[in-house]
Amino acid sequence: MNELVVLAIVFTVLTVIGTPLFAAVGLTTFLALFLIDIPYTLMAQTGYTSLTPFPLITIPLFVLAGRLMEVGGMGKRLIDIATSLVGAYRGSLGLVTVFACMLFAALSGSGPATTAAIGSITIPAMEKEGYKTPFAAAIAAAAGALGSLIPPSNLMIIYGLVSETSIPRLFLAGFVPGFIVTALLMATVYIIARRRGYGGSGEAFSWAPARRAAWDGKWAIGAPVLILGGIYSGAFTPTEAASVAVFYALFIGLAVHRELTWRKVYESLRFTALMTGLLILLTPTLAFGQLSAFYDVPAAVETLITGITTNVFVVMILIGIFYIIIGTFMESLAQIILFTSVFLPLVTSLGVDPVAFGVFTVITCEIGFLTPPLGGNLNVAARISNITIEQVSVAVLPFITAYCIGLLLLIFFPQLSLWLPDFFYGPAR
User: Fold this and answer.
1) Would you say 59 and 157 are in contact if contact means Cβ atoms under 8 Å apart?
2) What is the 3-state secondary structure (H, E, C) of 364-396?
3) Residue 366 near residue 177 (C-beta atoms within 8 A)
4) DSSP category for residue 90
5) Domain range summary for the chain, segments of one domain joined by +
6) What pLDDT, in 10s, does the model give residues 33-88?
7) pTM of the model
8) Which of 72, 95, 198, 229 is geometrically suited to a Cys-Cys bond with 260, CB 3.0 to 4.6 A?
9) In contact, 50 and 175? CB cutoff 8 Å
10) In 3D, which of 328, 354, 323 has the Cα closest to residue 339?
11) Which CA distances in Å does 166 have to 156, 223, 251, 255?
12) Beta carbons of 101 and 144 less than 8 angstroms apart
């Protein structure tokens, strides 16, 4: 137990002084190996095994596909579709931003990527219509987080690999909570915009512009239909679907829309390399997770929490609070790898389905995207709008409330996430 205290102190100090997370976890793991006299080759073995699972290649492929679709013109066409469907209501551009992020989420699989793709277009447009810049940036940041909930989702892929849960079931489980959170975000935008008098200009909804926008954006709409339809029809696996998505994005961008240049392809490859560089966290965090099992941390946590309460709703709320606090300074990838092995045995012992817990985990990570100092989406939105992260952090608070309401709904009504995978695949055994 004294060793655990020392390791916790070392990890905390390294994190507080700004050590990169992979280095902080790695150094703490090396110290743990030294203290319990386990060969350092564990790190090398874990590094090899952590990067060998074939589904792992799905992440960079979906990131690349989403980026190619963005620079190839699909993102703009999705915004046009959303604009034609929303019409001239109070906060219409804000509503368009949320709706477009929901649509683009089915292409990108990443929260920050969705924020960048949609926010770079809609934030300047909202500013021109009189929205205060922090509020416009907060809308894009909050809605962009949907990229991690609505399938395909990179975080769900990582959770599925770590917890050995079916990735197609996880993808299906994200749909209904994704739509619920989208509705909550749109309600938040509408209420605030109505109070402040934002928007309301432009053309009212009519079918003719909506049909034109849908026709112009038919290839963009076809992307999630092809990707997800192929997965659930059994035509291809999620990894194969990611490969198909890249080919589809290249073909449509180069041959149909003709907005994709080889320079943009190179930039997309560079962007993908930078985004998937986070996978460097896999080796130290998985080794750290193995050591936590060696120290019986999951059993200790289960004993500690069940000693306080065995009410599943209270336990889930406590875990949610812990995840949200951790998410303020820890990358979502590391959060999922480190703590899934700690909390999943506890919640499954209380009757929680691993698929529902996966969606719960992803929503808490989305809240982490919106909380400083790390706040990935906040940083992206702040850069786009040329304001400080502190200004966006204040403006995003109502949207964090919306996410928390969605999280509570999922805790008390887990079937919201389970009924769709149960319908397609039958109840999990």
Assistant:
1) yes
2) HHHHHHCCCCCCHHHHHHHHHHCCCHHHHHHHC
3) no
4) B
5) 39-425
6) 888 777 777 777 777 776 777 677 888 888 888 888 888 888 788 878 877 776 66
7) 0.84
8) 72
9) no
10) 323
11) 10, 22, 30, 35
12) yes
